[in-house]
Amino acid sequence: MMTLPTRTIGPFQVSAIGLGCMNLSHAYGEKPDPADAEALLNRALDLGITLLDTAALYGFGENERLVGRAIGHRRGEYTLASKCVLDVIDGKRGLDGSPAAIARTLDAALERLGTDHIDLYYLHRLDRNVPVEESVGALVRAKEAGKIGAIGLSEMSAATIRRAHAVHPIAAVQTEYSPVVRNAEIAVLDTCRELGIGFIAFSPVARGLLAGGVADDHYVEGDIRAAMPRFTGKALAHNLRAVAAYDALAAEIGCTSAQLSLAWVLSRGGHVVPIPGTRSIVHLEENVGAGDVTITPEIAARIDAIFAPGAIRGPRYAAAMQAQIDTETFADEELA
Questions:
Q1: pLDDT at 187
Q2: 3-state helix, strand, coil in the chain (%, to 5)
Q3: Which residue among 223, 249, 256, 329 sits deepest, i.e. has the most Cβ atoms within 10 Å of its Cβ?
Q4: Would you call 334 exposed, middle or buried from its count of C-beta atoms within 10 A (0-12, 13-18, 19+)?
Q5: What is the pLDDT of residue 92?
Q6: What is the rounded distance in angstroms from the CA atom of residue 278 to the CA atom of residue 212?
Q7: Distance between CA atoms of 43 and 1, rounded to whole angstroms?
Q8: Integer Cα distance of 69 and 143 in angstroms
Q9: How far apart are the first and last CA of the chain?
Q10: CA 165 – CA 96 distance, rounded (Å)
Q11: Which residues of the chain, if any, have pLDDT below 50?
């Protein structure tokens, strides 16, 4: 097994680049062959990736089953992260942050994962019908019972983070973050730094936009990008012009577009860990190489110029999904 540089997330030392497991079971259309997905997870561990991120929602439980089946026998080699609150309710995606629902989701997750302990367990979204203190309280009890090791939050604002942290120290906050999605810079990144909370950047290559993965809006059935305004129609056509300039910068530097994005995320602070997802072992190996790319002040400034206000059009989420996001928005941000 290889080793990678590490960063501190709560009580854990994890590889500076983790792995988001979602797209092995969820959200991007056709799923990979199970054997290929299992091979990728094992290759990730062989490469020295030690933070793996899943959730009850992903594949309606199938992603947790995949992780347990593929690498449960190597449980001591990685920090396992999963999530609750977003789950399958009456056969559909649902939101329930009540302590009873959290306890049910956790017990089902442990069974699917084939383990008695999840290292890092997140509230996947804020349920505005339940005080966050009550939701965190349920995770405190789970920690006291030995079912989880640390508590995380996903897509929550600085104010919510502070409320949660007052109940029990929060180990990690997870939010979308890349050169094109900067909401975390409004308040969350600084709040995490101040409180000693790790920051986990999901979609650090902007759902493939910064990895050569989006050329048009002809998505396969089941690809969530088809419902995301910035990934379709005139907005996408506009956005791809900025991406072309970004791709040219990566080529000039001598790295791939994905590596440049991951290196940029890593440069934002020592408490930041990106968790790119992929179905390709070639791309997985490429992502690990991002640690060798240096982001100089000049390169950072050029990236900022490429993605200056107006370079990316269209809301980040459709209205129904945006309604579940607590993370701050910019004053001029397009919202569905």
A1: 98
A2: 45, 15, 40
A3: 256
A4: middle
A5: 92
A6: 12
A7: 9
A8: 24
A9: 45
A10: 20
A11: none
From residue 103, alpha-carbon distances to 51, 144, 280, 281, 290 in Å are 23, 13, 34, 35, 38
Please tell me the distance from the alpha carbon of residue 60 to that of residue 71, in angstroms, as a whole number: 19
13 in Cβ contact with 58 (< 8 Å): no
Domain boundaries, the chain: 6-209+265-293
**Which one of 58, 78, 121, 317 is the catalytic residue?**
58
**CATH code linked to domain 6-209+265-293:** 3.20.20.100
Report which DSSP code applies to 164.
H
Q: What is the token pair recorded at 179? A: 């050169």
Q: Is-catalytic flag, 317?
A: no
**What is the pTM (predicted TM-score) of this model?**
0.97
Instruction: Answer yes or no: are the C-beta atoms of 267 and 235 closer than 8 Å.
Output: no
Distance CA 103, CA 135 (A): 10
Average pLDDT, the chain: 97
Question: 3-state class of 270 per DSSP?
Answer: coil
pLDDT at 336: 80
What's the CA gap between 143 and 196, in Å, rounded? 19
**pLDDT at residue 24 in the model:** 97
Other residues' Cβ atoms within 10 Å of the Cβ of residue 312: 23
Q: Tell me 317's DSSP state.
A: S
Q: Which of 186, 200, 94 is nearest to 153 (CA)?
A: 200
DSSP string, 54-88: --STGGGGHHHHHHHHHHGGGGGGSEEEEEESEEE
